[in-house]
Structure formats: structure tokens, C-alpha cells
Amino acid sequence: MFLISAAVPILATIPFIVLVRDIPRPESSSRNYMGILKEGVRETLTNRTIRFLFLSVAFLLVIFGFYDVYVAPLLSEGGFSHVSVAWLFAAIYVAEATGILLPVGTHTSGYPPWPY
Fold this sequence. Notes:
Structural class: mainly alpha
Shape: flat
Largest sheet: none
Number of strands: 0
């Protein structure tokens, strides 16, 4: 079974290797990496919207990573049963999915409700 699961992705890439050709790159893409990085950092520091999005995503990823990795073992070691921890995680994931699907802020932002 392991050989099949290892071979299928390799076999699936063969048509792309044979049929897809590299796209020619324009001359403007030859800028150096540090110049592009400095421009992106400068834009992040000066543009409030991009700064807010950057900090929000960074904060949420750290919180979610901490929650996903450390909270379940801490609760289990604290005396909670595995079943109660699983139900807690299930309720939180359902709440996250519901929050993603809700069209929050559509009245003030001017965007149509989800899905766009």
C-alpha cells in the first residue's frame, strides 16, 4: 500500500513534466531579491491596511498554532478526558467554520455577502 501512495503523486506529475513548458520571464523580473524585499517591508510599514492584515494573520497563525499544538495535551494532563477534549475541539472547529461562512461586515464594507 505504501508503494502505491508513493508512486501515484510521481505518476501524476509525469504529464506536466512532459507537456508543460517554462514561461519566458520578462526582463523586469531580474530585479534583485533584496530590493524587492525592502520595497515590500517599506510598503508594509507605511500602508495601514497591509500592516493590519500582516499583523492580523501573524497573530492568528501564532494563536492557532499554539492552540492546536499545546492546548489538547495541557487539558489531557490537567485531568480532562480525551473524549471531552475531542468534543471541545469539535465545537471550536464548528464555530470557526460558521464564522468563516457568515457574511460579517457586509453592510458597512460595501462588499456583497459570501460567496463573492
